[in-house]
Amino acid sequence: MAFELVKRPMPSRLFAALSPLIAFTLTLLAGALLFQLQGVDPISGLYTYFIEPLTETWSLHELAIKAAPLILIAVGLALCYLSNNWNIGAEGQFILGGIVGSALPVLFPAFANSATLPTMLALGALGGACFALIPAYLKNRFNTNEILTSLMLVYVAQLLLDWLVRGPWRDPAGFGFPQTRAFGDFALLPAINDAAGRAHWGVAFAVIAALALWWLLRSTRTGFEIRVVGASPRAGAFAGFSEKRLTLFVFAVSGGLAGLAGIIEVSGTIGQLQPAISPGYGFTAIIVAFLGRLNPLGIVAAGTVLALTYLGGEAAQMSLGLSDKAVRVFQGLLLFFVLATDTLIHYQLRRSGDKHGA
Amino acid sequence: MSDAPSVPLLELEGLRKAFPGTLANDDVSLLIQPGEIHALLGENGAGKSTLVKMIYGVLRPDAGTIRWHGEPIELPSPRAARRRGVGMVFQHFSLFEALTAAENIALSLDDAPPMDTLTERARELSERYGLPLDPHAMVGDLSVGERQRIEIVRCLLQEPELLILDEPTSVLTPQEAEQLFKTLEQLRSDGKSILYISHRLNEVQRLCDNATVLRGGKVVGHCKPARESASSLATLMVGSELPEVSHDDAPESGAVLLEVRDLNRPAATPFSMALSNVNLEGKAGRILGIAGVAGNGQGELFEVLSGEALLQQPESIKLCGSLVGQQGINARRALGAAFVPEERLGHGAVPSMSLVDNTLLSRHRSDSAGLVGASGRIRRGKLRELTTHIIKTLDVRCSNEQQAAGALSGGNLQKFIIGRELDRKPRVMVVNQPTWGVDAGAALRIRNALVELARSGSAVVVISQDLEELLQISDDISVMHNGNLSAPMPAQQASPESLGLLMGGAEESRDQLAGEKH
């Protein structure tokens, strides 16, 4: 028996709004089933995973620390995706931002004053933006597929970081560990409230970026340009918008934000460069962007939910003895259900050849 | 076979098809006898396409019966319809341009014989029915008329008893159309039935034995077209008598506001047309009509005039005194030009966006309306006001200004797009296919608005495939063929026949002579 997807004449607005919630609920149900199969009580499993991290102040701080990079990256990606530019390489742009921003405290540790941190942040954003402009340029110049080029550059960035921390940038006093010297105080992003938890000012950057891009998309000509070119490139040309210029712009913005997230992570959370500085934030942010319906405010909520899966994963690893791969499974399930519910908003499933539809 | 004359080939009874929001066909009944050319008449949106799709198995009726040789049948798919003996030539061809005619035919057959046999049979058929065709020719190199012949031959190869043709002459020159009529008459004398869909009344009168007229999804009459007058048929189709376009005398010669000199543009893709040595003048107060069969470079000319495609030589196009060959569309708008492209959805408007946003599409930099502040912030209030004003002025039927452009009917969206540009009172307006797929009422309104704009002192250039329209509104007419533009002739002196010859390429040799003189 064959099924086919038939376009709905009128997608329901109600279900369009509810679909992230439905997707999240389905993820919980599928998660419960997985806990059952692993021999863990589903109720206490879900509690450990999704509720417990919310019950204590210090873990709320951890939540904010993990949500901030996700939101920063995802709002930038939303610009790309809305304009039909498929930047999949935010992970690499994040890492490059971390590297370029760290160059200052690693290579010039003596340059330590109140200008250090702002310079690092600017360098990080610049590094991410330049790295993102590579796939954008290739797309404009040679019509290459930006999905492939941006993704492949992720591995370039990861290997570059690995080489730096094992080679030229390794801490001479670090007993051979693959890491740079620890940053000085002027190179560290301070915590908002040291007494309560680790959450640093990167959280504020995330909120500001989300609000700024929300305004950009909603109220400015640039936002209009992004939506027009994404919906219909020919109409964009009729409006006098340059598709190529826009491609450069959205890649630069999204790479810049990913790079900023990278240097914030290094200077705010880790305090030095090490072989891995991201638990896959750049890829998870793709899920965040879609779960947030490519709307910067929705992305703030979605980023918090996905941050929870990281925290829950750590908790489940410690108290339930689950593999750390469980995090990826949950994130994957969530993306799957988001895309599935989105599809069913616009299409209905029916048996092919069926006269009246299902 | 029960081919007795008393049993009709096809009988539709009470067919009904509803789409969400509209009843496309309501209680439609229709009889087609063997050996008959039957016309299906109706305006755009009258339900012709829906009805035909049900006969060809693309759509399934919600209610009603289809009888074939007197027996009720079900047509779950086009394949089933073809097996019964229904063939269809669509208005928009589905041919692969990079394959040969014979390869295209082989691809479309449900069980294709070996290539040699197929080529032979295609050749045989094309000779018998006067459809000259080279099976080995690459489709991309063929004219529209030739492509249509491939479509017809591939239908005939399936030996259909009923052949459906959807607006077949909309892409042909009058001479090519005449050739097609001969083929159809030959088919009729071989005992085949033809369902001929059109809104061109003179063709229907010339060719068809019987006609069924649809309006608003319902059958409003059956008649013998030969016994009716064109105006009685039109009244039946539209439901009321339409006033004529008011067209008073044009000023003799106004200032030249748009001037194109020796414009050349190489083809952008293997399947697009190069423009060679195009000259034209848009004069204040007058409408210049550009006729031609689709695909002869009109789209390419529009892109160059609008600035969506830039030229090597800035001096090729002069707009209100400035050389603009290398300036983009917004720079040209700022000089006072306005443009309406052929495609409404996805070019002139973004279907998923509201009318308010679509107003901004062509107006965000173009004029003093100040829709966008210096900081790039969109002034929503002003924009909404302007949109409602456009909607009111052109009588655009929509639920409100926030409705998505794609939800409007073709005619209403076109009125909106034209109104968006007219509202700026442009000094130069270039319109490509102003009334393509637009209902008669809206078409009349649009044509009147264009004449009015010209009479108020603007230069208007109208590119259209509809000769009748051009003869109605233009002051001068040029013909586009194969990327060349003929010298303009006064509209009073032009006739469908003389234009038809030019559309078929009769002027080319003269053009080349003129080119050598330079």
Describe this structure in words.
The complex is a heterodimer of chains A (358) and B (518). Chain A is mainly α. Chain A is 69% helix and 3% strand. Chain A has 13 helices and two strands. In chain A, strands 1-2 form a two-stranded antiparallel sheet. The two termini of chain A are 13 Å apart. In chain B, the strands form four sheets. In chain B, strands 13, 16, 17, 18, 19, 20 and 21 form a seven-stranded mixed sheet that branches. In chain B, a hairpin with a 2-residue loop joins β1 (10-19) and β2. In chain B, α11 (355-363) crosses α13 (410-422) and α13 (410-422) runs parallel beside α14 (440-455). Chain A binds chain B through residues 9-10, 219-222, 224, 227-228, 231-232, 234-235, 237-240, 353, 355, and chain B through 19-21, 60, 76, 306-308, 328-330, 333, 339, 341, 343, 346-353, 357, 360-362, 364-365, 372, 375-378, 380.
Key traits:
heterodimer, A: 358 residues, mainly alpha, two-stranded antiparallel sheet, 13 helices, 2 strands, 69% helix, disordered C terminus, B: 518 residues, alpha/beta, seven-stranded mixed beta sheet, six-stranded mixed beta sheet, 17 helices, 21 strands, 34% helix, 22% strand
Brief account:
The complex is a heterodimer of chains A (358) and B (518). With 358 residues, chain A is mainly α.
Supply the helix-strand structural class of chain A: mainly alpha
Radius of gyration of chain B: 24 Å
- The N- and C-terminal alpha carbons of chain A lie at a distance of 13 Å
Major beta-sheet overview of chain A: 2 strands, antiparallel
Q: Ranges of chain B with pLDDT <50 over ≥5 residues? A: 508-518
Summarize the helix and strand pattern of chain A as letters: EHHHHHHHHHHHHHE
Helix tally of chain B equals: 17
Q: Provide the low-confidence segments of chain A as ranges.
A: 354-358
Number of strands of chain A: 2
Q: Helix amount of chain A, in percent?
A: 55-70%
Structural class of chain B: alpha/beta
- How large is the count of helical segments of chain A? 13
How many β-strand stretches of chain B?
A: 21
User: Which percent range describes the beta-strand content of chain A?
Assistant: under 5%
What's the pLDDT, averaged over the residues of chain A? 91
Major sheet summary line of chain B: 7 strands, mixed
